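Appendix C. Worked example: Glycoside hydrolase family 13 protein
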Amino acid sequence: MPNPTPSNDSWWRSAVIYQVYIRSFADGDGDGTGDITGLRSRLHYLAHIGVDAIWINPWYPSPLADGGYDVSDFRAIHPTYGTLDEARRLITEAHELGLRVILDIVPNHVSDQHAWFQGALTTAPGSPERARFIFRDGKGEDGSEPPNDWHAAFGGPTWTRTPDGQWYLHLFAPEQPDLNWDNGEVRAEFESILRFWFDLGVDGFRIDVAHGMVKDQALPDLGLPEFSVIAGEDRPNHPHWDRAGVHDIFRSWRAIADSYPDPRVFVAEAHVRPGRLPAYLRPDELHTAFNFDFLKCALEADELREVIDRTITDLASVGAPATWVLSNHDETRHVTRYGRAHTGVTTPMRDQGHPTDLALGTRRARAAALLMLALPGGAYIYQGEELGLYEVEDLPESALQDPTWERSGHTIRGRDGCRVPLPWTGDTPPFGFSPTRAAPWLPQPADWKSYTAEANQADRTSMLQLYRSALRLRRTNPHLRGEEFRWLDSPAGTLLFERGNGLLCAVNLSDQPIALPNAWSPLLVSGPLTKAGLLPPDTTVLLHLD
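Step 2, the predicted output written as structure tokens:
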């Protein structure tokens, strides 16, 4: 059934948002790549899950050097995905089903094929066109050395030399030149882009690399080894992460969002050191932010409790809601992580080659999903996690497209394993992903026949049914709709908390079954209780008073 569209301006405080990696969601035109037609055909599926909004990864024109995060035109749709008219229809149809629509915006960099950068390459050093980017002369007598020692997030140096001898900065791939946010033209352009999409009815934006837009113009050396660039995000006064100048930008963006009768919202992707995230979520800046501490946390009771406490306390200091997330398009799917001895996210970017117990990982993923959806605030579901999908770690090397694979000298396989196209129906690939049975842009495992949406729908104990049941409770149970939360005493290796005054969540991450509190009865369990009515290890239960 369609979900009632929230009528108040604070819908985002408790929203469950479904992440659509559009290349891999559903192919509507039969070319093996996901598109807007495919997404439109599955909107009823998303509404039936019970989510409040969809977040669509970049669908703009792009050479796809980094999966669409190298944008060449922010006011159009990549021809492979569809047209601007189709995007308008998608927004309208989503709203009719009670689904808000959030887009990705990529303000740190553009594609090297963007008209601005192509213009910069054809003008002389010091030109207004180059001032939109970060061009510098090199070091050494002949300028043949990069301007500093920074390393790119995907490996290799963060500088590329142009034919006239200057160098340009790219924190990610060479095909993604960084913009200069000290430039007024850059600021004005992105304010215009926001208004363009808001005027089309888009409900908000997820801001890619929100913490990296402003740089120290002195460009000092960092002295960090290769691939420590992301790990170095917690360094105080970092020259390109979490600089104070980003907050002026976000205050101007918030004013634009608030100028609409139905205010638009922002979600920050901000990897920052502990205690810094609230600065991004002050009342005149961004609305919410991804909770990377929760995503990366090991599935251990003490660690989870510490992260949950810190998140709620820190964000409450600025009146912002918490958000919770288990997977996304950049990290190993949590079914796979949770089936390993170490259940947290590791660096650099992937820790592959370790044995994975998928049965254990699935059981833990079910427990983690019910925990996440019982916590106060908002939550994010990455496409396919509701089907129980695992990381595809044996993709042929010839199929790998993530720039990390090349930039690391073929030592890090990158993120393709969590981006494999979704299985919808049938017993053989492409599992209904494409109407013409065209080979998907990344190959699907044959055993995904047990993970299709169709197979999940037919199994009343499936992961999909668990997500639907949990989301139904979030909508209908008054104790889950508020933000009240308090811990209760529980045995070692477990978590026990109360929502409102009549709902408990118990999570058993110990190695022994535990008794449930007296006078409380199960509402929803991530897995079966023991015959004696105990909560087994790696299981979560929601309970209500008899």
